[in-house]
């Protein structure tokens, strides 16, 4: 897991994200902050995703992100009922 975390932090510190995280700061982020980072990454793929998630209903965030991830052929672990 730590290798995956290290990889994620390294990629977020590069272009186009330039987040300037280290392992400690990234690991200490709150869940909403992590969700916003995911949203920022998705916004690089689809600029329509560029939204402050604090200003959006959680259900709408899930629907919007799931729709884009589905278009990208991402298959989440578990079943649809788990979501």
Please tell me about this protein's structure.
The chain is globular. The protein is mainly alpha-helical and about 80 residues long. The chain has 4 helices and no strands. The mean pLDDT is about 90. The protein has helices at about 1-15, 25, 30-45, 60-70. The longest helix is centred in the middle third of the chain and has 15 residues, at about 30-45.
Brief synopsis:
55% of the residues lie in helices and 0% in strands. By secondary structure, the protein is mainly alpha-helical.
Task: Furnish the topology, listing elements before pairings.
Blueprint: H1 2-13, H2 23-27, H3 31-45, H4 58-71
Domain IFT81 calponin homology: 3-82
Family: Belongs to the IFT81 family.
Protein name: Intraflagellar transport protein 81
Number of helices: 4
> Averaged pLDDT, please?
92
**DSSP strand content:** under 5%
Radius of gyration: 14 Å
């Amino acid at each position: 897991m730590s290798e995956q975390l290290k990889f994620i932090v390294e990629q977020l510190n590069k272009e186009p994200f330039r987040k300037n995280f280290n392992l400690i700061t990234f690991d200490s982020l709150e869940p909403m902050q992590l969700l916003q980072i995911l949203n920022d990454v998705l916004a690089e793929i689809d600029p329509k995703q560029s939204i402050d998630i604090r200003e959006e209903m959680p259900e709408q965030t899930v629907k919007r992100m799931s729709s884009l991830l589905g278009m990208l052929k991402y298959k989440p672990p578990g079943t649809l009922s788990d979501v």
